[in-house]
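Lecture notes, continued. The same structure-token format from the folding unit now serves as the input rather than the output. Read the line below as a description of shape only.
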């Protein structure tokens, strides 16, 4: 089993830093989750720290493809750090965002082969690490889409 910091480095390498800012912030996605209007992006309020990712974890499900790609590598790295926390909401939100079916417009369809491999490796860590407390859900996500011969590929 690879070290989570090695996997995080691979994730960071596969997802170059996007220019500018996302069309919809994670905070805005969390507002949509509560049926509120999304607030405009604010560089001070929407700086993606660990606390920000955890506070607005539910927002990842409501992001458009470009915003999802902006936040996904940050969320994957946080998921790797939190894999040992049973029922961690951020881990669960990231895994939910990686389940099929893909959306319209597609999010998965925007990923390169290198990005897909990095995502699969991060999910595999959560699924197979002896320290992980989120193994069952991660295995389900892998089987649904992220391994060869997956159910919904």
């Amino acid at each position: 089993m690879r070290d989570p910091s090695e996997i995080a480095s691979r994730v960071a390498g596969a997802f170059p830093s996007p220019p500018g800012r996302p069309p919809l912030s994670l905070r805005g996605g969390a507002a949509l989750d509560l049926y509120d209007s999304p607030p405009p992006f604010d560089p001070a309020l929407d700086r993606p720290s660990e606390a920000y990712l955890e506070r607005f974890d539910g927002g990842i499900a409501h992001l458009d493809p470009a915003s999802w790609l902006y936040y996904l590598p940050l969320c994957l790295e946080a998921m790797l750090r939190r894999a040992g926390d049973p029922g961690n909401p951020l881990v669960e939100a990231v895994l939910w965002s990686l389940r099929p079916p893909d959306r319209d417009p597609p999010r998965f369809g925007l990923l390169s082969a290198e990005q897909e491999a990095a995502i699969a490796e991060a999910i595999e860590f959560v699924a197979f690490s002896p320290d992980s407390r989120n193994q069952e859900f991660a295995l389900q996500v892998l089987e649904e889409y992220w391994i060869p011969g997956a159910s919904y590929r």
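Point for the exam: The helical segments are 4-14, 26-33, 50-55, 65-82, 89-97, 113-128, 135-146.
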